[in-house]
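Progress report, Aim 2. The chain analyzed during this reporting quarter is listed below.
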Amino acid sequence: MTTPQETILIVDDQAVFAQGLARLLDTEFPGVHSVVATSGQQALDILAARPVALMLSDLRMPGLSGMELLARALEAEPALSVVMITGYGSIETAVEALKAGAYDFLTKPVDRESLVRVAAKGLERARLLGENRRLRALVAQAGSLQTLLGRSQAMNRLRESIAAVAASDYTVLIGGESGTGKEMVARTIHNSSPRAAQALVSVNCPAIPDHLLESELFGHVKGAFTGADRNRKGLFLAAHGGTLLLDEIGDIPMNVQTKLLRVLQEREVRPVGANESTPVDVRILASTNQNLEAKMQAGAFREDLFYRLNVLHIHVPPLRQRADDVPLLAHHFLTEACRDMGLPPKDIAPEVLAFLAARPWPGNVRELQNFMRRLAVFARTETVDLPLARLADSNGPGDPGDDHLPPYKDAKTKILDDFTRTYVRQLLAITEGNISQAARISGLERVSLQKILRRLDIDAERYR
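Predicted structure tokens for the chain:
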């Protein structure tokens, strides 16, 4: 589809020829407005006065030649798609124009099929570049990594929830799958809260050995245990006046759960080995990727602690439930990776964006970020294309520029498997792991679909 703002500029000193091309293009592309210029200078005036998606220019013109017009047009608008038109005897000049930045060329007499094909490709390129500029502007507007990117309904609801809980001082339990950005949500809550000027202290509970976690949280006094050669105040006191994030709270041992409950109830901490408690003013945020209700039933998590933590609850949606945000996130992470490596910004082909949006992303935003980092490393052109994206998706060995090809049968099998894997993942994401519904949508027998899942090692449970 085209947009009303799209304009094709046709430049040729033969007015009748140019007007004929304009009528043909207006017929083939109803949403496009064609404008005719009969000289290079007139074309430059039009380019200065209005946005142009595609310019078709004759090479041989009196006054300002096609090559001179090309250079000046691209100087003014480097992203402009330019198609040069030349006679059969000037093919070498057309090739020079391509080297100078022209997008494509046509030879006279111009046949309808070639004109429509080249114009369609040029307009699609203009739309791609325009979309890339728009997404880059959104990324720049969003700011740093601490900003929650996304315009989907799920992200809008998440932002509304964050705004609601940030104003209070109640404890918040943040749930969601690994890689969804729970820590970023916690930071956003803190930065939007009255405690924003104070510290946000974060502790990754599973990363600290059980026997050290109590000391890490509550502190200890000198001589409390072997190796305690000095007093340590602990993270609760370090966060005094601010916010403490207990990341992956579901993994803390029962003995620490009991002491944590006491701190939440009494609002005071007693360091290991101390005889007295110290009052503490801290807001608690806790995150988990586990089902704490199920852990309570299994006796692995204290029920009273759960209800102390779950005063307010926020669920961070998985990426598969906000596929509309994938293009924006992909551009953000690619721009970030290029900046980190000192590379110029890269664009993403439309078919790559569709490919990315169709993947279920079991690792969520973190997986997408790592995927875009791989693309930034291996992309050797200004635009990330689909073959490179498929190669990065398969995690295949070898350099992306390697000329070695596998046997035809192996290559064909791999492509078919990649297609099947992408299709089935999207199918399961739509049906939320319902095999029967997935079989009906796909037209496959349930048994056949289950065989495919086993062969490709895809677990439907991950999509529920």
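The two ends are 35 Å apart (CA to CA). The chain has 19 helices and 14 strands. These observations will guide the mutagenesis work planned for the next reporting period.
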